[in-house]
Design a protein that fits this description.
With 114 residues, this protein is mostly helical. It has a single domain (2-112), classed as Ferritin, core subunit, four-helix bundle (Ferritin). 75% of the residues lie in helices and 0% in strands. It has helices spanning 2-27, 47-52, 56-80, 84-112. Helix 1 packs antiparallel against helix 4 and helix 3 (56-80) runs antiparallel to helix 4.
């Protein structure tokens, strides 16, 4: 069950990347985005800990933090977007992050026995 959840989250990350790529192509036709090797913004604050985590409880706690950060980033971008389509995409991505957060919170509570 836990492995399935993390596989689903990985699939959602790939979907987000495709949506953001499509948005970039729409906003900047003919241009290519910069290529760089960095973790996604929502994992950046907890990236080091994620690489060293040794137990399920802490892995879930870090995943919860990451999903909350991602949700908040997308909500902020939604408010800042001047284009309705862009704002709608960010709102959709924020909702997906919120849903993932709620699912992980349920798993976390099961693991810690609440």
């Amino acid at each position: 069950m836990l492995a399935d959840e993390f596989l689903q989250l990985a699939g959602e990350k790939r979907k987000h990347a495709a949506q953001m790529s499509g948005l970039f192509e729409r906003l900047y036709p003919g241009m290519k985005p910069l290529e760089f090797n960095a973790p996604p913004l929502d994992t950046l604050p907890v990236c080091d800990e994620m690489m060293r985590v040794g137990d399920v409880e802490n892995a879930l706690a870090l995943a919860l933090i990451s999903e909350a950060i991602g949700r908040d980033i997308y909500r902020k971008l939604q408010r800042m977007a001047g284009d309705e389509g862009v704002a709608a995409l960010f709102g959709e991505l924020a909702a997906i992050k919120e849903n993932a957060y709620e699912r992980l919170l349920g798993l976390y509570n099961e693991v810690i026995g609440e």
